[in-house]
């Protein structure tokens, strides 16, 4: 059986034909008209799905359903996007609109970070795990919780916003207006801020030279550290402590089998994952008595969102089929 | 149908006969021989349950099952207590031992804070809620998460230890050896510490007079605040901010319908609950777009543990029967 997974992004709308093993056999994309009326954006979405199906010789009756990942505040059960910062959705009933436009029976939606978490857990780095927490380190921090092959999102799917849990009471100001949020310490934007502060305090640091080429970014401190810069190593160590602190919170509450770390920074691989694993093992509650928690880097990259969106409409948690 | 709920405490073992509405119709207790070999403690438990059933004219075949709440690290699925600080349990397979001693088929166990959360959610302050988070403010902080009438405890039931989530990175030292734990800021012990510090800095505060009678305790600042003491009001306001910060973290991750606040401090009633409600509404993520979250004080008191333990062995989530 095939499913369609749709990833709504600020730049492009992407749709993929996905099978129950999580393999994308065909995909298409169109630019997102982010500021257009929501009806037009959804009409673009419907056109994209129809065109993908047509080019594969399929109709909407041939597939198991259509799953959508959207940025912003999504009400999964109601099938609406309450609000999105970057795209013109305001209480937009996307599921109902898409059902009507395509004559489809089975359409589901969730937040894009949740879809990526579901995709990675079922078909990527977390394959086989009973439960997982995915932390995506980007401009902000996205978090997704999966238990028994299904997303855990709380009442009205308003939860799973771990980026805004407080890890430093009264601390750094976050983009959300609150202080001390995980995102204000462990996102790529936070790492860049921490890098810049260290550079200001240390004109002798190698980071200045590295930043000359492409400016300060999430890689600056990692590159300098690998070349032996001590200030950079301190920036990275401190940053990994922040990333770990939020994950330890998730552990003490949920105790997943596996943490999946996604986003650009996860491409650092073992440089990030090994010390993070150590930090988590040393800081989770009663580690001596409780099951160990694995920490891995995401493996699906940009595909996680499409594959996870498709998994929203798969009838049984794929894990039951796969293992 | 009747069920037996057992609450293992450091001072006494309590057992109650509970019906499916959560009403305790009979109960018994014996002292806990906390330092005795675990076999003897479990034998006391079995004797207590047998004696309760006998005095009600019942046998173990007449009841729906036996549920147990135990302090410490409990593996619900395995039916063992891995470790308890105060009672001599070390990888003790209580469920198997009790099944054998009583000839019972249906025995289940969970952490005592989890049982209290389940009891309050199904039959107490959270009655009717689809999902809830219970925060018990005591010497430490116990937390319990209920979704669809069942406890959420993570892999190996090692989670639901929200008292040890970090809310203040690098902050106050916690009894667990880590820094910045919720428990180190929002437990009664933490409130007492905060009260003592404020008293030291303010010899003029009314709190000194109040503490003369029974020493500094969790009520000192609340009493002084109600009599107009400004320093005490600051202590209470700050403390409520800490309590709220941990609850906001739970909200941003789980978004329950209701928070239930238990423990001695919850007896302050509206003095605690009203400002806590305000703090939470003002600090949860995207409050304008998401469903509101209710905050209530626990209502079952010491019975919550027995009733919740009994609910562990009720066949369907009682909510389905009740609403």
Distance between the termini of chain A: 18 Å
Tell me the CATH superfamily of the largest domain in chain A: ATPase, nucleotide binding domain
What's the SSE pattern of chain A? EEEHEEEEHEHEEEHHHHHEHEHH
Tell me the helix content of chain A: 25-40%
Percent of residues in beta strands of chain A: 15-25%
Gyration radius of chain A (Cα, Å) is 20 Å
* Sequence stretches where pLDDT stays below 50 over 5 or more residues of chain A: 319-323
Keywords:
homodimer; 323 residues; alpha/beta; Nucleotidyltransferase, domain 5; five-stranded mixed beta sheet; 11 helices; 13 strands; globular; disordered C terminus; ROK_cs (chains A, B); ROK family protein (chains A, B)
Task: Describe what this molecule looks like in 3D.
The structure is a homodimer of 323-residue chains. In chain A, helix 3 (112-123) packs across helix 10. In chain A, the strands form 3 sheets. The first copy, chain A, has a 5-stranded mixed sheet. A 5-stranded mixed sheet of chain A has the order 11-10-9-12-13, with helices on both faces. Chain A has 11 helices and 13 strands. The longest helix of chain A is centred in the C-terminal third of the chain and has 25 residues, at 230-254. The first copy, chain A, has helices at 38-55, 94-102, 112-123, 183-186, 188-201, 207-214, 220-226, 230-254, 270-283, 304-311, 318-322; strands spanning 2-8, 12-19, 24-31, 66-70, 73-75, 80-83, 90-92, 107-111, 131-137, 141-147, 150-151, 258-262, 294-297. The two termini of chain A are 18 Å apart. Chain A has 2 domains: 2-118 and 303-311, Nucleotidyltransferase, domain 5 (2-Layer Sandwich); 128-299, Nucleotidyltransferase, domain 5 (2-Layer Sandwich). In chain A, strand 2 (12-19) and strand 3 (24-31) form a beta hairpin. The radius of gyration of chain A is 20 Å and the shape is globular. In chain A, 38% of the residues lie in helices and 21% in strands. With 323 residues, chain A is of the alpha/beta class. At the A-B interface, strand 10 and helix 8 of A face strand 10 and helix 8 of B.
